[in-house]
């Protein structure tokens, strides 16, 4: 099985997309992450959903989970509002790792290794500098476990 057998259309966002819009897209479509594209439509980064949470959750709560417990429920329920006015560009790491991109001929094992190496729940599939879609962890597992 090759990437071309697993690839599906996948939504993209730009660097200037508001983070709240990206979070809504993640939630509305049940996505594990998003492909961030540049002005030419080429993949620039993969934005895992967890990275959006990392930006929204106050650092003190990440450093000491017990502190999250002392925030009252009314304020805890609104923590995502802190993302207002911020863009996807601000969610991306300063020193990006290897970009999880593969070509349509990549094998399932190559895609799985790329996901594992980059900690990415999806891999962008690119052919001749054009984004074809993505292979998600869910699709990869579903299809390989059915084999």
UniProtKB/TrEMBL annotation:
Pfam families documented for this protein: CBS
Q: Which domain of life is it from?
A: Bacteria
Q: Which residues form the CBS domain?
A: 6-67
What SUPFAM superfamilies does this protein's entry cite? CBS-domain pair
What keywords are assigned to this protein?
A: CBS domain
What InterPro entries would the database entry show?
A: CBS_dom, CBS_dom_sf
Which Gene3D superfamilies does the record cross-reference, listed alphabetically? CBS-domain
Hydrolase keyword on record: no
What PROSITE patterns does the database record attribute to this sequence? CBS (PS51371)
Q: What is this protein called?
A: CBS domain-containing protein
């Amino acid at each position: 099985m090759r990437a071309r057998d697993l690839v599906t259309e996948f939504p993209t966002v730009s660097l200037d997309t508001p983070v709240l819009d990206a979070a809504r897209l993640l939630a509305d479509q049940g996505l594990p992450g998003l492909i961030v594209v540049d002005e030419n439509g080429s993949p620039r980064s993969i934005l895992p959903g967890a990275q959006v949470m990392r930006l929204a959750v106050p650092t003190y709560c990440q450093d000491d989970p017990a502190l999250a417990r002392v925030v009252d429920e009314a304020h805890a329920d609104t923590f995502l509002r802190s993302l207002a006015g911020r863009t996807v560009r601000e969610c991306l790491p300063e020193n990006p790792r290897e970009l999880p991109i593969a070509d349509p001929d990549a094998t399932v094992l190559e895609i799985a290794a790329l996901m594992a190496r980059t900690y990415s729940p999806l891999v962008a599939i690119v052919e001749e500098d054009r984004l074809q879609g993505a292979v998600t962890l869910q699709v990869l597992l579903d299809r390989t476990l059915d084999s």
